[in-house]
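FIELD: query
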Amino acid sequence: MSITMTIRDETTAGDKTDALTLDFLNERITVRELIRSRVYQEVQDYNTKQPEHFRGLIQPTDAEKTLNGYKLRQGRQIRFDTQYQKALAAFESNGFLILVGDKQVDDLDEEIVIGPTTNEATFLKLVPLVGG
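FIELD: result
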């Protein structure tokens, strides 16, 4: 039996995107596994359907950021391993935060127990402040 976790994206500017659901075989996963599963699902969905925009955690190489996601300059398959490594690097350099339930997770090897109060994760992308 699999366990489902809902993933939501938000920015510090208040923008929100649609939710994504991920299935896990175990109720105990690491932050690294959460990121890997999320990136894998996004890349698989894009490569299978080849929509006009990639809606994912990390901007692919040679893609332009648009209101609808990332538009690749040339239609192509996105490489999971490249996206995954970029996502890990972004997490470690505070490019985004992950909140599980009401708690921030800080370490890639930190364990998450998926349960009634921890079945939702928010990936919070940090947006630079603009001053005058």
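FIELD: remark
The chain has two helices and nine strands.
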